[in-house]
């Protein structure tokens, strides 16, 4: 099993990083989809920090998780420091799991819903199409982060190398 975990952790870390880094272009540029998501949560909760701060806070958390699950572990592995790679992936997976847990809860239990806008009018004011892909990807990232957290946690606890 440890040989499987040694190799499976890297594609999972790459998947999480691709999803997170790809989403940054939307969160950091004022795209209408994050604005819609976080203003919906702001209006529902009455917490003014959801927008405009929400996309930035979540984007920074996703960037940190990406660095911790993939970039730093690669550096540590190249420097022959597998224990530090495991620690980094464990911490990154913890951040990713927490971030995606929040996303999943907000999609399921608030007016946000599972379907989110996927296409906007040219002026960015009218939703032309909605889809479930954002929610589905959050679930896959959550599952990948959970697996990384368990595998790397076992490695750190037991001292096994993988």
From TrEMBL:
Transmembrane segments: 49-78, 90-114, 134-154
Keywords, ordered alphabetically: Membrane, Transmembrane, Transmembrane helix
Keyword Transmembrane helix: yes
Protein name: Uncharacterized protein
């Amino acid at each position: 099993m440890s040989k499987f975990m040694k190799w499976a952790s890297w594609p999972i870390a790459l998947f999480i990083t691709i999803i997170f880094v790809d989403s940054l272009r939307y969160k950091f540029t004022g795209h209408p989809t994050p604005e819609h998501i976080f203003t919906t949560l702001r209006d529902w909760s009455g917490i003014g920090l959801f927008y405009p701060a929400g996309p930035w806070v979540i984007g920074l958390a996703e960037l940190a998780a990406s660095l911790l699950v993939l970039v730093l572990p690669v550096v540590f592995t190249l420097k022959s420091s597998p224990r530090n790679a495991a620690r980094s992936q464990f911490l990154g997976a913890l951040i990713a799991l927490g971030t995606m847990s929040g996303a999943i809860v907000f999609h399921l239990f608030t007016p946000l819903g599972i379907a989110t806008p996927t296409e906007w009018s040219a002026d960015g004011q009218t939703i032309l199409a909605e889809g479930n892909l954002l929610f589905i990807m959050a679930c896959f990232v959550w599952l990948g982060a959970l697996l990384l957290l368990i595998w790397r946690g076992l490695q750190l606890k037991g001292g096994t190398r993988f």
